[in-house]
Design a protein that fits this description.
By secondary structure, the chain is of the alpha+beta class. It contains 2 helices and 7 strands. Helices cover 23% and strands 36% of the residues. The strands form 3 sheets. It has a 3-stranded antiparallel beta sheet with strand order 3-4-7. Strands 1-2 form a two-stranded antiparallel sheet. The chain has a two-stranded antiparallel sheet with strand order 5-6. The two termini are 23 Å apart.
């Protein structure tokens, strides 16, 4: 079953059951790089890392939707197998990174 998620350019349809959930994470943190980019970094449990690796292997070239509640917060393209147990995705600002990481951890209400 697919679920419609509104985005600025229209609608994205996602599987109703997520591949990963909060219990698959050990850490969510706001990060930045030397070029001024801002990211949210996720560290996964061994089981979560295994699922992400399998899904990414089957979906190279497709988008990985990152949803909090019913809000699509990022949709990076999978360029290679994600088999390191970590995932980082770019966001527009340091404030967005801090907010999204806190929401993923469950520190703030959805």
């Amino acid at each position: 079953r697919l679920v419609a998620v509104p985005v600025p350019d229209g609608t994205v349809y996602l599987h109703a059951r997520p591949i990963l959930a909060r219990e698959d994470l050990t850490e969510a943190a706001a990060l930045s790089d030397r070029q001024g980019g801002h990211f949210v970094g996720l560290r996964l449990t061994p089981a979560g890392a295994e699922r992400l690796s399998a899904v990414s292997r089957q979906n190279i070239g497709n988008l990985l939707a990152l949803v909090i509640g019913r809000e699509l917060v990022a949709a990076p393209r999978i360029s290679s197998v994600l088999d390191r147990g970590i995932l980082a995705f770019e966001v527009p600002s340091a404030e967005a990174a801090t907010d999204i990481a806190a929401r993923i951890r469950g520190d703030v209400p959805q």
